[in-house]
Design brief:
Blueprint (H helix, E strand, L loop, with lengths): L9 H7 L54 H4 L1 E3 L11 H17 L15 H7 L7 H8 E6 L3 E9 L1 E5 L8 E4 L6 E4 L11 E7 L2 E4 L3 H5 L9 E5 L2 H10 L1 E5 L5 E9 L7 H7 L8 H10 L1 H9 L5 E6 L17 E3 L10 E6 L6 E7 L9 E8 L1 H8 L2 E11 L2 H4 L3
Parallel strand pairs: 3-16, 4-10, 13-15
Antiparallel strand pairs: 1-2, 2-17, 3-17, 4-9, 5-9, 6-7, 7-8, 10-11, 11-12, 13-16, 14-15, 14-17
Length: 417
């Protein structure tokens, strides 16, 4: 599972597929936590840039059923020489670090995109293990060639690792339960019952002799899981916890000054309702950034709680230890180097070269993560790390331009390019 529950993009997830958060129970009162959560800061103002034009698509992609769509069926166009396109500097250095730690998984994974096989990456991975980071841009230009998937029109959003006030135990000021995955939450692989349902799963619970949907968000918030020993920790602020659930991973800043890292451990199987779109449609907000949505929820707590309850989804967590946060490849994601991508169109672990109308995300990134809102060719979600700066950038990130996927040299020829 990826770092984010819907991995998506923060703004897109809130607009299209936001997750549920907790609400402070009625009557829960107490002093403010000793380390109150941050909130209300403005999104970082974008630095404009001129994106590189996409390449003309000469050959129409082959037709095929929707459920087999991937990069090959979308159409692949050989890209330009990349030696002059890869910027030197910190982004490329971080990308080399991220590529290096992805290699063990990259060489073993089955590539859903149809662009590569595991052995294609052997030479680049061997070189990456000892390549000097000071010349990272030269590494990418020497071992990779570019292809454009489909029309190459990129849309990029952002995500981050939230930091919110929390406690391992319930106490005054920390009243919002953060639940572990319940043992009666069951995943069912429908493909085991019918070939026509291959690749489809549902999630629910057993009620007598019936398999039924799991409790929805309003039921969980109202206490349907209380008293079962499932409380992993307690959050101080329902709005901050809501945004942490959207991200699917985060850090709890504890009263004693410690930090507890938590990560996604499933959700209740209910469909998402995007509260951002809902709020815009009702005229409650004008824009759709995290900061806009958060401001409304804080200013209208009763209405905000009701709006969040319209989203039936609820996310469960586990405590994380060791390096992290962990992305869909099973390795730690790298701030300002990791992007989430759709693995049907980009091999997980592959470098991606972005050229957008916003300067901050331009350059080399590594596709190390996935997300429920990140679907289709050239759709990416950029990871910015933790802290106030990362939050401000990710919360307002929305950029368009062009994207090239970097493949090991020789791959394009095998694809007929």
């Amino acid at each position: 599972m990826s770092l984010r529950q819907s991995g998506g993009a923060l703004a897109a997830a809130l607009l299209l597929s936001a997750c549920a958060g907790g609400v402070i129970p009625p009557g829960a009162a107490g002093p403010a936590p000793s380390r109150p959560p941050r909130g209300g800061e403005a999104a970082t103002q974008p630095v404009p840039a001129t994106p590189r034009p996409t390449l003309p698509v000469v050959v129409a992609p082959p037709a095929g059923p929707v459920d087999t769509a991937n990069a090959v069926t979308a159409g692949v166009t050989r890209g330009p020489d990349i030696a002059s396109l890869i910027p030197s500097g910190e982004r490329s250095r971080k990308a080399l670090q991220a590529f290096r730690i992805s290699c063990p998984s990259l060489m073993k994974r089955a590539d859903q995109s149809g662009l590569t096989s595991g052995s294609d990456w052997n030479n680049a991975c061997a070189a990456a293990s000892s390549w000097p980071e000071a010349s990272a841009s030269e590494f990418f230009s020497r071992y990779f060639e570019a292809v454009q998937v489909g029309e190459g029109k990129a849309f990029v959003t952002g995500y981050y690792e939230p930091e919110i006030a929390g406690s391992r135990t319930r106490q005054a000021g920390y009243e919002v339960p953060i639940y572990r995955r319940p043992p009666n939450l069951i995943d069912v692989n429908l493909g085991l019952f019918s070939d026509s349902l291959k690749g489809k799963t549902i999630r629910g619970k057993v009620d007598g002799t019936n398999f039924v949907p799991y409790d929805d968000r309003s039921q969980i918030v109202s206490g349907s899981l209380a008293g079962r020993g499932l409380e992993l920790a307690w959050a101080a602020d329902p709005v901050e916890f809501f945004f942490l659930q959207v991200q699917g991973s985060g850090r709890l800043l504890l009263p004693d000054g410690g930090v507890m890292r938590i990560g996604y451990d499933g959700q209740n199987g209910r469909d998402y309702t995007g509260i951002g779109k809902l709020m815009k449609d009702r005229g409650l907000i004008q824009a759709g950034s995290m900061q806009d949505i958060m401001a409304y929820l804080r200013a209208h707590p009763t209405e905000g709680a009701a709006i969040m309850n319209e989203n039936k989804s609820f996310v469960f967590f586990r405590e994380l230890t060791g390096a992290g946060p962990i992305g869909a490849m099973g390795v730690p994601v790298t701030p300002e180097a990791t992007v989430a991508a759709d693995p049907k169109y980009v091999p997980l672990g592959a470098p991606v070269l972005l050229s957008l109308d916003r300067a901050e995300p331009n350059g080399i990134w590594i596709a190390q993560d996935t997300g429920g809102a990140i679907k289709g060719a050239n759709r990416f979600d950029s990871f910015w790390g933790a802290g106030s700066s990362a939050r401000a950038i990710a919360g307002g990130m929305s950029a368009r331009g062009s994207a090239l996927v970097l493949l090991p040299i020789g791959s394009a020829a095998r694809l007929g390019q």
